# Entry
Amino acid sequence: MPYVDVTSSTGKTRFKYTICTPASEEADEIDRNLPTLLFIHPVSIAEHIYYAQFCDCQLRRFNLVSFDLRGGHGGTTGDRVPFRYGQVEAAEDTMRLMDAIKLPPCHLVAMSSGTTIAVEIAVTQPERVLSMFLISHLCLEIPLEVAEGHKEVNDVWASAFPDESTVKEDAIYDAGFGNIQYMFSNPKLSPLVTAMTRVTYPVAMVRWNYHHLDQFRIMNLDFYLNRKSHPKSVLARIIGSVKLVHGSEDVAYPKSYAEEFLRQLEEAGVEASLLEVPGAPHYLSPDFAACINPVLHKFILQNDRFDLGLCAPIPDHVVSPWEDKMRQAGLNPDGAEDADSSSDDGIIINSCSPSYLVETLDFL
# Structure
């Protein structure tokens, strides 16, 4: 996977990013004849949350681009994020990344906290954004009870690292369990999500350990608490269409939360619509790809300024850029579950040894 160095007002960053084209899952640059989709992941995980989109044959007609956020996510490294790092600063970093890898105006696909970054870009530099596909948006202020949940997860995670030589794995498990309930509703995880947790949590134990608890708090708590909504006068700057996607089983945000933002967009004169996915949790992209990917594909075709006659045909077979990583984490993309991919608690953390942490970092 390629890396690029970016400098913004909050520091220097070496961003890990991914470009997929119809011809390659590890391309060096986009195909300039095709629409480009830029995926922005939520905090607390990394770009591989979009595994099921990047191995979708229809979507791989386009350029698919993703990256790992700052502050301890995935393979991105660099200066620490400063206190009060939020949607404005993350949007600036994202735009600098877009410049560095020479992206044209893009369709932004974002989920959960990533949607605040997408909207910030769209109101700051509208000409960069052709459309937005916002999954489980967080573009309004956080409800009090949800804020309390995030605070509890932060406190439990911090308690896992009482000093630089101690890691309390029970606390890691408890924090992970709480976060997974927020993200996926049901602690009984699918094989794909189980593989994602096996990749994510060992890395988190290194990136957000005793010496980096400030980075954990900034990205996994303050980023939520300090987010700001925009008045209608600012939302009116959005040029392209917006599709909101909401899961009916989202334990943190009811449908009314999505409907309120839809109302605000429409009153601001933005062309917007809402899709509710029955049975889906807050993080829809892994397990409900069959529901949302065709909608995303159609949305891009309806909202792109390119000559669609130049679009590549739908390929017969594509491979995810994170295929090897997920296989190493126990996923069998061919369908058969591995022996321990469906444990009772759904998340396997306690078995992580130091050697496993090193191996996990090696294949990031």
Remarks:
- Confidence is low (pLDDT under 50) at residues 336-364.
- The radius of gyration is 19 Å.
- The chain has twelve helices and nine strands.
- The longest strand covers residues 11-20.
